[in-house]
Specification:
- The chain is α+β, with helices and mostly antiparallel strands.
- Helix content is 22%, strand content 34%.
- A hairpin with a 2-residue loop joins strand 14 and strand 15.
- It is elongated and about 110 Å long.
- The chain starts with a helix and ends in a 16-residue tail after the last strand.
Length: 479
């Protein structure tokens, strides 16, 4: 009897679980179906048809602009200036947010069409591979944010074959900036924004990037970039192999992240204005030059300080007829020093630092450093008359060590080759610092600190303005 009850309970539990699984599966099926239907309605309610039906965009013509596609890039017809693809994408984002709320059949309208769409109104024409679409913006509806829009579909083979349709349209894109919720449902904010799409001037779309569009996505595969400026001799950057020519001095290595960061800065570097045509003879004070070599050949960018009586800086590309006006802080891609790509530190996150006044000194302070994300634990050892003393097994809060650690672990301002003609006995008079067992001599100059490795034949230069509190007085490290 008990076994029979257990079997019934077990059977009911299995049936219940099966029902739950069936319910969840049905719910997911219905939800997916609903999502597909919503996506389909979203497509059908969009003013711009799907690419499969009309093909690729070839031309945009408005009251203030005319843009043509050449190859993979859009250009202005009148001056052949390239279009900024990012701005064009943003422009189409707002166009795709114009949704059809309702279609009004023209044959059913008893009033003149001009009451909905004025005879003289703003227009935008889009030419695709298979057809042309002419948008005519109409009047706003008084009691809502919606407005009328007439769309004429024109057959490319026959200009007289025009299909005219009238819609009530809503703008689904959110408003940007600050606005009052009160009365916003009837405001004309979105209507005015849409009218603004029809009124945008040509220069809004000008591509002000200093790199031509064909190079903006090829930086990682470029052969070389050569930089030369008034600040430093020319050098080469090899993005693909992440190297420079000349290479780092001594045993210094490269900083991979700098190559990545520089390529991003170069890709995004852009001006703030553009001069459509200019006389190259009137450019003055050449500041820098960038020569980019890829599979298609060379592209030369030149940075100038002045054009005619106008202060720059300006950038011109050797194959273009226009001049780009730059912001001063955007020109760093031209003047970045060669050594920015090199690791110029004595040791990132060093584990042990030993400091003594000079080779004759018997007094030494020695820090064992345990680096981690939360804190730096130090055990201070002091050598005196060849005898080791543990000053404290606990954490030492030494301001002097903090300053020394800051200098050791940070990049130097620059590095240089040691002059081997210097008297080596002079170095024995200098303080020594051992970073993870590697010896450096510390030297105080008027404006900078120098760390010198005779082994690597390299000198690290640090500004005293950046490290004003560094001291070579050993007593300071014991406080």
């Amino acid at each position: 009897m008990k076994d029979g009850k257990k079997n019934i309970i077990k059977t009911n539990l299995i049936l219940f679980l099966g029902l739950c699984v069936s319910f969840v599966a049905t719910y997911l099926f219905i939800e997916k179906k609903q999502l597909r239907e919503n996506a389909q309605r979203e497509k059908e309610n969009t003013l711009l048809p799907q690419k499969e039906k009309i093909g690729e965009l070839q031309k945009i013509q408005g009251d203030h602009l005319e843009i043509l596609k050449k190859g993979e890039t859009f250009y202005f017809k009148d001056n052949n200036i390239p279009v900024d693809q990012q701005k064009l994408d943003k422009y189409f984002y707002y166009l795709t947010k114009l949704k059809i709320k309702e279609e009004i059949r023209l044959e059913e309208i008893t009033l003149p069409l001009t009451l909905f769409v004025p005879e003289k109104t703003l227009s935008l024409e889009f030419q695709f591979e298979k057809k042309r679409l002419l948008f005519l913006i109409g009047n706003k509806i008084n009691y809502s944010q919606d407005f009328y829009l007439q769309v004429n579909e024109i057959d490319l083979a026959n200009d007289k074959d025009i299909k005219r349709r009238l819609f009530i349209v809503k703008d689904d894109a959110p408003l940007e900036g600050m606005y009052s919720e009160e009365g916003n449902e009837k405001s004309d904010n979105k209507y005015l924004r849409t009218k603004g799409l029809f009124l945008l001037p040509s220069n809004y779309f000008y591509d002000l990037h200093i790199l031509p569009s064909r190079l903006q996505n090829k930086l990682a595969t470029l052969k070389t970039i050569e930089l030369k400026s008034y600040r430093s001799p020319k050098f080469l950057i090899d993005f693909k192999n992440q190297k420079t020519a000349p290479p780092p001095i001594g045993k210094s290595s490269y900083i991979t992240s700098v190559f990545v960061d520089y390529s991003k800065e170069l890709k995004n570097a852009r001006g703030e204005d553009l001069i459509e045509s200019f006389d190259k003879e009137k450019l003055k004070d050449k500041l820098a030059e960038m020569i980019i070599v890829d599979s298609d050949g060379e592209t030369i960018l030149t940075l100038w300080n002045k054009y005619e009586n106008f202060s720059g800086p300006f950038v011109n590309r050797d194959k273009d007829h226009f001049l780009i006006k730059m912001k001063k802080d955007a020109t760093l891609v031209f003047t970045l020093p060669l050594q920015s790509f090199w690791d110029k530190s004595l040791g990132h996150n060093p584990m042990r630092i030993t400091l003594k006044k000079n080779e004759q000194s018997k007094e030494i302070v020695d820090f064992l450093i345990e680096n981690n994300k939360d804190h730096i634990k130090r055990t201070l050892l002091r050598y005196k008359d060849q005898n080791l003393e543990i000053t404290s097994p606990h954490e030492i809060k030494s301001v002097a060590l903090e300053n020394l650690l800051d200098l050791v672990s940070k990049d130097a301002d620059y590095i240089s080759v040691v002059d081997l003609d210097d008297n080596k006995n002079d170095f024995k008079k200098l303080a020594e610092v051992l970073v993870d067992g590697k010896k450096y001599y510390l030297k105080s100059q008027e404006l900078e600190w120098e760390a010198i490795s005779l082994e690597d034949k390299v000198k690290w230069h640090y500004s005293k303005g950046t490290h004003p509190n560094l001291t070579l007085n050993l007593e300071e490290y014991l406080k």
